[in-house]
Amino acid sequence: MSKVIALAGNPNSGKxxxxxxxxxxxxxxxxxxxxxVEQRKGTYKKSxxxxxxxxxxxxxxxxxxxxxxxxxxxxxxxxxxxAIINIIDATNLERNLYLTTQLLEMDVPIVxxxxxxxxxxxxxxxIDVAGLSKKLGVPVIEISxxxxxxxxxxxxxxxxxxxxxxxxxxxxxxxxxxxxxxxYQDESIENPLFHAIKALENDELEAETNKKVCEKVNSIVxxxxxxxxxxxxxxxxxxxxxxxxxxxxxxxxxxxKLTLSDKIDKVLTNRWAxxxxxxxxxxxxxxxxxxxxxxxxxRLGVPFSMNFEGNEFFEGLFWTDxxxxxxGVILANLTNGITGWxxxxxxxxxxxxxxxxxxxxLLMSVIxxxxxxxxxxxxxxxxxxxxFSLMEDSGYMARVxxxxxxxxxxxxxxxxxxxxxxxGYGCGVPAMINTRTLNTDKERIQTIxxxxxxxxxxxxxxxxxxxxxxxSEAFGWNAALxxxxxxxxxxxxxxxxxxxMHWTTQREKVPPFIMELPAYHAPQWRALGIHxxxxxxxxxxxxxxxxxxxxxxIWLFSNFxxxxxxxxxxxxxxxxxxADFEGxxxxxxxxxxxxxxxxxxxGNNLAGEGWALTLASITGLVAKEVVADTLITIAxxxxxxxxxxxATNISLGGLLAFLVFNLLTVPxxxxxxxxxxxxxxxxxxxxxxFWLGTSYVVALMVRLMFDWWWTTFIVxxxxxxxFVAAYLWYRHACKKEEMSLLGA
Length: 744
Description:
By secondary structure, the chain is of the alpha/beta class. 58% of the residues lie in helices and 8% in strands. It is built from 32 helices and 13 strands. It has a seven-stranded mixed β-sheet, sandwiched between helices. The chain has a two-stranded antiparallel sheet with strand order 7-9. A two-stranded antiparallel ribbon has the order 10-11. A hairpin with a 6-residue loop joins strand 2 (28-31) and strand 3. Helix 15 packs antiparallel against helix 17. The radius of gyration is 30 Å and the shape is globular. The N and C termini lie far apart (65 Å).
């Protein structure tokens, strides 16, 4: 029978890197039963050792202050793993050992893994492993999860530990511990020492679980704040008894003895340079992902085609007349070439089989215009995931959260809220789940609401499609700048709306923000690969289900009349079939709804297929990838989308408003379902109205400013008036509260 080994440790201790190194491709991610906190499991199988590895959430203690702490505690107590590997950041020994002193109180075999031992070596420091092991009473092993060093030896020790029982022991010497321990032993409760100490600490979860026994223990410590005594004793033991095992010369930190991370932070977290550096980093990421004139080299006059003139493979794949293509565009070109070739083969095969026209139209709409078209966006989505993962794994994203704390604190949120917001750049679902770590309901409400404004990976397809039109001769914009501006707009709107909510409906005192800044380090490429593969699987699964279903519904409603009469395709001047939407269910329905969007500059029923933009906005509520897919399906192919949109006589402001509305409005169904689970009861309907209202108003402002430049002054004046009114109301409410407190 496979052993179960749990990984426990502080955030940023290298636990996830170790988990990826142990489990590799066997890892899978879900949610813990009953809660929406991520659960990671995998299998280690090497050299005769087979074990199921469970990655517990990163925690600082086993007190029930956060959902992650409750999950970790309950898993160890209730699921009874065969052993625990306690991962410790060896460069921050004292801080990490606090959790260790609590784990030692459980009746479970423990192996302590001193991670980042290679970093200590570079600093000419080390740890007396044998001495520390003897003092703690459990095996201690030095490893480097990043460099995959000592991993198998760690698993050998953990496997051996599984074979023997272990009784909990504590570093606390208080006189009450022994009495409480005996009370729990007499009641035959498992892990009696751990439960006894939690009862002494007046632990809420313990009081609920073992109410009668806990009351007995509380009677012997009445009037004593044992939780404070316990914390003091633990830290005193760590400082006095365990710090001695650190080896190497301890030098006083000075300006001349800064670590490499400190030197980098002097620049990246600089009060004035930090935010501009972050924005430049974002711009570079989008240039490498979307640009068809990488770093504007083409506009600067650098020639590219002269060396391969006449070679059509290189020209178009690697560059165009505009300039050199970015890696993201090159990969997208290759992918679209392959899917286009496959689509042609499928169509030729169906023709050779003499399939009826309606069946060919249906299959080509679902496969070519649906699944294949969305797969064409996959390379650029993965490029974004790759670059954001690089910034996160290197430790830079933690600095970004620290830097934005200064801004967010004034807006009514702590910097901690910016972490789930940044996750929103990848996917809104895990970002909203991550808000469970925030301190108050109002902070969670504000954060969940503005997460929808960040351009997630699913929205990249819509950005890409519209950016291609904006980069055409009709508008002459740069595609990379379009992508960058949309990400920046989401961030600006998020901050603005947080400020407004804090001044009006969600007013409260800003919670404190404490965050550890991990040392900079090179990313683990294997872990990056696993992360990107997980994202790829998720995207393809969505493309193979929701997006194909959406393409099927669009085809059905666009090829039948309200009386369910089939509408055959027309034939263009080249003999190719072209969809005829005249009289279709789809066109009639969207023309009825289109006037809602007419003020935004799209949804014009009187010009071209303006109703198509209305349909794309509605189907985008299912999944944001479907915005682009809808236009592709209606146009009859990706290459025809530009002609379809331009045929509506849409203006620059209208096209930008269409993009802005779809980026800021209600997110996909999956994100809405997650928001419902995470928001306090009754808040979902107000949140949906908040998303709809914000996206409509901002899109309207964009349309006005870009179509009639002089309205910019009016728009700015209206925005200023709203913020001034909100601030005055906020000051009035604060003063009223102060007066009521004085009166009380």
